[in-house]
Amino acid sequence: MTPVARPAKQWIPLAVLGMGLCAGIVATQIALDATRAGIPKLQRMSYLPDGTILKVAALGYREVVADVLWLQVIQAMGDKRVSTETGQWIYRALDVVTTLDPKFVRAYEAGAHALCSIVVMPQESNQLLEKGIRHNPHEWRLPFLLGINHFFEFGDNQKAAEAMAMAARIPGAPEIIARLAAKLLVSAKSPQQAVELLAKVYEETPDDNVKTLLEQRLREAIVERDLAMFEDAIGRYQAQYLQRPARLEQLVQAGLLRELPQEPFGGQYQYNADTGEVRSSEIKERMRMTFRKRGQ
Amino acid sequence: MERLLAVAVNTFRETLRDKILYNLVLFAVLLIGSSVLLGTLTIGEQARIVNDLGLAAINVVAVIIAIFIGIGLVSKEIERRTIYTLLARPITRSQFVLGKYLGLALVILVNIGIMFAMFLATMMLSGHPVHASLFQAVELMMVEALLIMAFALLFSTFTSSVLSATLTLGIYVIGHLTSDLKTIAEKNASGVIKSLTTTLYYAFPNLETLNIKGQSAAGISVDLGFQVIATIYGLLYTGLLLVGACLIFQRRDF
Fold this sequence. Notes:
The structure holds two protein chains of two kinds.
Chain A: H1 11-37, H2 41-44, H3 51-57, H4 62-77, H5 84-100, H6 105-117, H7 122-135, H8 141-154, H9 157-169, H10 175-187, H11 191-204, H12 208-241, H13 249-253, E1 269-272, E2 277-280
Antiparallel strand pairs in A: 1-2
Helix pairs in contact in A: 3-5, 4-5, 5-6, 5-7, 6-7, 6-8, 7-8, 8-9, 9-10, 10-11, 10-12, 11-12
Chain B: H1 2-17, H2 22-41, H3 46-70, H4 72-79, H5 82-88, H6 93-125, H7 132-156, H8 161-187, H9 191-203, H10 213-217, H11 224-250
Helix pairs in contact in B: 1-6, 2-3, 2-6, 3-6, 3-7, 6-7, 6-11, 7-8, 7-11, 8-9
C-alpha cells in the first residue's frame, strides 16, 4: 500500500499561525504589564480579605497562606521609599498574617520594627505587639519591643516600665532586661516595683555572675526607693511645719517615717538641710533613663 | 484473604504502570527549588517556610492522588469491560472492592512515604532541624488520604468519574469546615438549627482533626493520645465508607 500523498509544506501555515499567536500572547502580556505598572503592586493587593475570613477559606493550608503573604510584606518593606499608604497596607497584611497564624512570632517582631523604622506608625506597631503578646505569652521579645516603643516613640516611662517588667518575668529573658526594667520603673517613680522585680529575678537566677550584677542593681534600686521615701516625707514635713527638718531623725520623731532606712551599700544617707536634698554616700549618679526623642 | 491480596497486588502494579509515580519527580523539583528560592526572600524563619511548604505540598499531592486514583476504581474496569471477566472469577464482589482499595492504599502510602523522604532530605541538606512532630503530621496525612480515597471509591461505585471527583472534592472542603459547624451550633439559640448543625457535624468527617501541619511545622509535638484517637477516628470512618461501598457494589447490575 502506498502512503497517501500529502500536499507538501502543509505544516507551514500552521507553524506561521502558531508563531503569530505566540507573538500576540507576549505582546498582550507586555501591554498588560505596562498598564498595570502605574498602579503600585500593593494597591492591587488592598482587596485582601479579612484574616478571619481567609482563615476559613484557606481550609487546612493556613500556614502556607500566611507564609506567602509574609513574603509579600517583606518585599514591601524592602522598597526604597515606603509611603504612608504602603505602611498602612503593611500593617493590615501583618494583621492578616498573624490572624492566620497567631504563633508567627517573627512576623510580630519584624513588623513591629518596620512600623517604627521605615514608616512612623508606632500606634500600629504597638497594636501588633499587643496582639502577639496575647497569643504568645511565653515570648519575652514581644513585651521587650513594646517597652522600647513606649519609651522611645511615646516617652511613656510608666508603660515602658510595665512592658519591660513583663518581659523580665518571662523565663528565658536575659537578666539585662530586669536591670533595664528596674531603671525604667525608677524613672517612672515606681522604685518599690523595681526592687520587687529585681528581687524576684535575683531569686530565680542560677548564675553567680548574673546574681552579682543583679545585686548591684537591686541595691541601687533600694537607694532610689529610700530617697523617694525621704523626699516624700520631707515634703510632708514642710507642709506641716512650714520649714525643712534640720536632721533626718526629725522625720521619725514627727511620725512621718517609722525608722531611718539602712543604706544598702553600707554607707549612709547624707542630708543637706539647706537644699532639702538627700543622697547616698556611696552613689555618685542617680538611676535615670536618658534619651533623645525622634528628630531632636 | 488470598484472593483479596491477589486483587490488591494487581491493583498496585497496575497503578504503578499508570506512571503515577512521575508526580514525585515534579514534587521534588518543586519543593527543593521553592525552598531554596523562598529562603532567600524571607527574614529568618527559613526552616519554617520550608516546613510549611513541604508539608502542604505533600498533603495536596496526596489528596489529589487519593481522589483521582480512587474514582477510577470501578469505572475503569467497566469502561474496559474487564469487570465481566473479573466477576466471573471465584471472588466475591466485596473481595473485589476491598482488594482494589488495599492496592490503592498501598500506592498512596508508598507515594506519601517517598515524598516525605524527599522532604526530609531537603531539610537535612539545607541544614534545618528535623522535628519528630513532622512524622506525626505525615502519619495523620496518610489517614486523611485513606479517608478521602474511601469516599472517592464509595462515590465511584454508583456514579460517573467526573461526578465522583466533584463529590469527593466537596467532601474534602466540607470536612475542613465542620469545626465551624460546631461553633455555629454552640452559638445558636434555636434548638432546630442546633440539632441540625450538630448532626451534620458528626455526619461529615472532621478532617481538621487530622490536620496538625501548622503545629508540627513549628516543632511542637501533639499529645500521643490525641494522635492515636485521631488515627482510630479516621480508620473507623474509612471502614464505614468501605462497608457502604461493598453494599452498593453488591447490588449493582452490569
